[in-house]
Every structure is written in structure tokens, then in C-alpha cells.
Amino acid sequence: MIDAQDPKLQILSRYKARLTYEPPIPIGTRGNLRGVEFEAIGYMRRRVRYYGVDYEWSETLLWNPFNGYRWLLEYNGHWTLIEDCVERPEEKRG
Predict the structure, then answer these.
(1) What's the structural domain count of the chain?
(2) Is the Cα torsion angle 10, 3, 40, 22 positive or negative in sign?
(3) Domain range spanning residue 70?
(4) pTM of the complete model
């Protein structure tokens, strides 16, 4: 039960009331991914129209204080882990 008298919790209540999709991984959930514990700290639902077809997917933002951020994407039951590049890729010729 949430005490709606706390202004911070009121904001969370309004946010939850407007959600049309439930995150596949609830915000605040912690779990191990490739041997590192991450916490789900954000969620967004994305959509793009490509040649007249709409594609929608979920993106969950994960965080670990020592390993940084990762995005975990889900589309039609398939999961993809996205990690930022920290170095510029090198071009190899020939």
C-alpha cells in the first residue's frame, strides 16, 4: 500500500495510472545477466512504421554502479542486449 500523501509517491501513482503497457521486467527488479547484477531503472515502449507496417518493441534500461548501463530489448518474445561502445571502431582495409 502506498501513502499518497508523499509528493514523490503521488507522481508515481499518476505515472502508473497512465501506463498502457506493463514493463516485461518491473522497474526496481534486480537480476544477474552474464554474471553481473543489474537493476531495471527505466522502461519505454517504441514503435516505428516501415513501408506501412508498424513494429513495436519494449526497451528496459538496466544499471550497475560498476558496469554502467545496458538496454535490454524485447520484440515478439525475442530478447537483445545492447551495450554502448566505449571506443571508436577501427576500419580495417584489405
Answers:
(1) 1
(2) negative
(3) 7-82
(4) 0.69
